[in-house]
Amino acid sequence: MAETKKVAIIGSGFVGRSWAMIFASKGYSVCIYDIAESQLTSALNDIGNQLKALEKSGMIRGNLKAEQQVGLIKATQSFEEAIRGAFYIQECVPEVQSIKADVFNRVAEIFDDDAIIASSTSYMVPSLFTKDMRKGRDRALVAHPVNPPYYAPLIEIVPAPWTAPSAVQKVRDLMREVGQAPVTLAKETMGFSLNRIQVAIIMECWRQVESGLLSLEDVDTVMWGGLGMRYAFLGPLEVAHLNAEGKYFIPSRNPALSVVGMKAYLRTYGEAMLKAADDLGPVPHESYKEGTPTANDICRQLEELVPLDQLQARRAWRDKRVAALAKLKKDLDQSD
């Protein structure tokens, strides 16, 4: 753990609260900043309730009790008070470039000479809001979590062109220490990694519904009942590596196919996969917009599936299951 144990969280919304809980689980002193006292009060109450519920269910992270973790989390309306003495600052403000730039510029005037600041942005490359920092921009980057961050461990680390490699490594080490699963992009890329993969999936799902190939409900079933079952434990490339292992590749039966793993997958399915890729169709520029017939139909089906007044309840349903999956994976890893 770093010599200075204070972490600052800028913004007390859902993501900020999740970060506070993650860092407190490992014994860090956390200071949350927001401009509204009511927002901070709500955040602290919510965090306390969440941690107590997690402790009761046996899903709290770390070795500290809920009461101890709650005691590590403070709140302030003073920007300077939050930043001073923090070795790591996590920005969690709205996805507006000017707001993020203002936060980073203000932090540059205050933060310690060895402190690092990271943004939680899900799509903005860091050079957009760090370019005008008066100092310390070599210690500024993106550390993008996945919702819900407390249960989904992935963190996408994205450096700006001027971010020091040492800062990237420190953040990567910190994320591992607090129980997250960091990946580091070699350069700034629109959409980072997760969203680029997600976009490819959503665009194909959109095309399948628009063309009438499958209903919306069936398309979603393909993911949660098929791909998602495997992808919860393995990535798509490792899935392919494992799937080509079988009786058809036993050398004694067919020497011509005496390869296994990804080589066998490429040999057996490569041409068919490329043909399917060629057949995917263009990006649906015209229909993937609010108000188009396809968009209206998809929105209608989704609102029938989950009425708008039930969205919050459905989110809670989702988070409960993601939490249970996280616990299952942890238990399985410990038993292996």
UniProtKB/TrEMBL annotation:
<dbReference type="Pfam" id="PF00725">
    <property type="entry name" value="3HCDH"/>
</dbReference>
<dbReference type="Pfam" id="PF02737">
    <property type="entry name" value="3HCDH_N"/>
</dbReference>
<keyword id="KW-0560">Oxidoreductase</keyword>
<dbReference type="GO" id="GO:0050104">
    <property type="term" value="F:L-gulonate 3-dehydrogenase activity"/>
</dbReference>
<dbReference type="InterPro" id="IPR036291">
    <property type="entry name" value="NAD(P)-bd_dom_sf"/>
</dbReference>
<comment type="similarity">
    <text>Belongs to the 3-hydroxyacyl-CoA dehydrogenase family.</text>
</comment>
<protein>
    <recommendedName>
        <fullName>3-hydroxyacyl-CoA dehydrogenase</fullName>
    </recommendedName>
</protein>
<dbReference type="InterPro" id="IPR006108">
    <property type="entry name" value="3HC_DH_C"/>
</dbReference>
<dbReference type="InterPro" id="IPR006176">
    <property type="entry name" value="3-OHacyl-CoA_DH_NAD-bd"/>
</dbReference>
<dbReference type="GO" id="GO:0006631">
    <property type="term" value="P:fatty acid metabolic process"/>
</dbReference>
<dbReference type="InterPro" id="IPR013328">
    <property type="entry name" value="6PGD_dom2"/>
</dbReference>
<dbReference type="InterPro" id="IPR008927">
    <property type="entry name" value="6-PGluconate_DH-like_C_sf"/>
</dbReference>
<dbReference type="GO" id="GO:0070403">
    <property type="term" value="F:NAD+ binding"/>
</dbReference>
